[in-house]
Amino acid sequence: MILALLVGAAQAQGLTDLDRQIQSRQQALEELTRKEKDLKEELYRYSQAIEEKWAQIQNLKQKIAEKEEAIKECQDRQKKLESELTGLKKRLKLRLKTYYRLGPVGFLNLLLSSEDIGVLLARERLFEMALLADRRLAQRYQNRLLALRDNERQLLKEKSDLEVLTRDLRQELVHLESLREAKMALLEAIREKKELYKDLLQEILLAQKDLARIIRQIKSLEDQPFPPSKPIKKEDFPAYPLWPPVRGSHPVKYEEGPGIFFEATIGDPIYAPAGGEVIYLGVKKAFGEVIIIEHPKGLRSIIAGGGAYYKKVGDLVKRGELIGRVGAGGLGKEGVYYELRLGAIPLLPLEWLDKTFFQ
Length: 359
Fold this sequence. Notes:
There is one protein chain. The chain is built from three helices and ten strands. It is α+β, with helices and mostly antiparallel strands and 359 residues long. Strands 1, 2, 3, 4, 5, 6, 7, 8, 9 and 10 form a ten-stranded antiparallel beta sheet that branches. The chain starts with a helix and ends in a 13-residue tail after the last strand. GO terms for molecular function: metalloendopeptidase activity. Keywords: Signal.
């Protein structure tokens, strides 16, 4: 009974530890889920920003294309004006040659010309007006060319500014895409970690279920006799026959467990039933101080009711060695409780004890 209680307590502690692990894993899963949600929101914002940058870049590319078209149109108009201006200069040069060839109206012209002076003066005036008109037209062409060149320079500057802005946007876009990739990698790592924690949690839950089943089995086996299909030959155990833990008292069946009870007085010596190793020493409610000695081949002696034990866990004892003295607490009456088990299976102690101590 005591061994079952001890094993049950250990298993219960195991359940408590598993509960803590389950709670810890669940909290970790909740934290990972929260981080996953935050990362998804960040990724959405990054995707929106990237789409906006792409839209801005496309808009700038369209504006650059428009500027290039305007620049080409401006350059074409300049070429046309330059061509017209070249033709005008040729005509002006021809007029000047003609004018200088004829010369100004003077005395010699009047003598040699068959035309009268009025016609000559009108022709001279006509040449002067034509030359003046050509000069004015050439000046207008020059002004228009200057305006077109200024417009071209402005268009080129605007195009350059747009290209700089496009490069800046592309750099921002690359940075955003890099950040998004890093967040996606982090999200993938969190998802993998979540799956790992889910698997661990599932394993712990299964372990908790198995442990609870084991505890139920231990409780159900607590007072069961050794299975008849596995008969025990006492002679095969070096500890047989065992000596009683106290002297001078005939043991009786203990009402609340598979063990037996020896009446004894406080301070009476307690002896080791057989050689073995102390594997447990502690206090159990309703039993007081408890010591467990493991003998060869898995045989265990559980002794309760001691007031003081002289051994500690790990000590080796010999058959009949003084290991403690009877105490007053735990059992409700003075004496010693003795239980014998093979592993976790309770045995009948009276069948294993040396009967000569009771004769």
